[in-house]
């Protein structure tokens, strides 16, 4: 690669053709164009620059509006001075406040989880009761009109919230949280407006009868609550308590958002241990023991809050929200003994789950790419798409039960049959007294109740095999076409529904040789489908056990998860990894790609390089800030400040803006670091929450000040991470990811050359960038 083309890559813009740099206006235009598309399943973007124009093309990675987070500790003179001045009491206050925030995250997420449950049960319950009453009066057309009308109304409200207030709230939210914890700061994914729409849009969407769940959005909700608490105070609302300033950094926000994601799982599934393991296995990219303790504490708080409110609801004061506890789908009453034929049936379930999961992911990928074209055309088409899917779902849910035959009620029941006025296993629908419609019992219920019916034990003949086939086909297809529309929607519940259905089917087929209850087969089917789509093992295993209260089934759940994941991994990636790629979020994997071993660090940096002197002219800094989108600049000391040119460190754009706004300039090119240390504090350079920091337009630099000088030493990170230019790109990628870096300096191997070759950022490790530079490389070798 040409040695003269080495550069510090912009965090904002991926300039793959190296034919020039994007100026500030072009970056803002790029940002606004993608913002107008709401970052909602847009096709991957690539910013290209020619000598005269720049353009956005749908060909590469959507890296235009996306910045990286500063997880690295910026060890400049201001930071060192602040750290030396801290007393033990301040450190104790800081640690205490972290635990207090963990408590508040748990309380907030637990309350939101309870609100979601009670709201969905009451709204959906009212809709289903109205439909049931009209059906009992033989007013079938009115029943369908009421059912479909309620669904469309609720769906339209949810879509309007997403389309007009917070487009980033659409979908599950788990891929966005996963990307943030990987170091990706995508636009508005954790904003307060996103939190508002996520809560109410999820309630409306699930109540509308879509084949979606509220569990995925709860993870996003928990992360949003944590982000809101982790803003480090607010000058606008006069919340500037001194202690809060310690959290004005991305490292502490990352830890709090990890706690929030774990709390979201705990609130959704009432699985506190599963929440901790989910954060460890799937969400977080960096982990340590101190974070494990805080996430465990947070999920414990969630469990206590949920238990207290659920206990309150047993008094009947929560409307249609029925009795229940922390165990959502209790199957512990079933006999969990198993033999060799049962193991064979479980292995078969795992293989089928892996195949079905990979096919499910394939079609979800295709549907999301199709919907992205529709969603790009404006809010009206987004809402129309939601209405169309709502009508289709309503027609399936109301129409397909007419195919099923009425089945006589079992005689040895402890519950009423048919079920009247509440959720249950036996819906009469159009059947006469003493009979029930098994398909209606699945379709005309909330998704949680449908899963509960499928997991029910000691009810082998409750659902006819043909009904299970019909329900599985409908839920499988509806789950695929529903995910990606403009409503908050989770994937867990659709996958559990479909998996439980084919698990029960397998149980019916193997009932002659297997002694396992069909309800336990349903649970194992759900586990196999979850493993085939999500590709998680440990966290899913514990979540399912906490959901169902059956520890005796642990070996079989472990076996079926391992088999389904292994089978599915041979075909494609997990569903969340696919969504990350579709959204263009530059996610760094824990491993390096095989082709990276054929390249070295200098092969992927590009040029020209923009550097500053230790004492730099104000006009030069302003020019660089205006003409580049870089967020980090190497600072090089030259004679007379050093004997030879040497790398002093890296200075951030945000820190330069603060320093320039303070106008601590000098007429002569001299070191004035002591004056800056006295005038500024470390907190003046702390990162503002929600992107409210100083912008270039906020500066008011006069013409005569442009020729003055400013000392950059006090704000320069004097200990940046560096790699030699001949280091394997694979090694550099692993180092970059494991340390959570934003900038990595590439230094020359031979003395006598300039002290820095270039800077690597996250986008330099993206396959689109590397394979664009070297199209002849085989990506699989």
UniProtKB/TrEMBL annotation:
It is found in: Membrane. It is a multi-pass membrane protein. This is Chloride channel protein. The chain crosses the membrane at residues 89-108, 144-169, 189-212, 256-279, 291-310, 343-363, 383-404, 463-485, 551-568. It comes from Lithocarpus litseifolius. Belongs to the chloride channel (TC 2.A.49) family. Keywords: CBS domain, Chloride, Chloride channel, Ion channel, Ion transport, Membrane, Repeat, Transmembrane, Transmembrane helix, Transport, Voltage-gated channel. InterPro entries: CBS_dom, CBS_dom_sf, Cl-channel/antiporter, Cl-channel_core, Cl_channel_pln, ClC. Pfam families: CBS (PF00571), Voltage_CLC (PF00654). GO terms for molecular function: voltage-gated chloride channel activity. One of its GO terms (cellular component) is chloride channel complex. Residues 715-781 form the CBS domain.
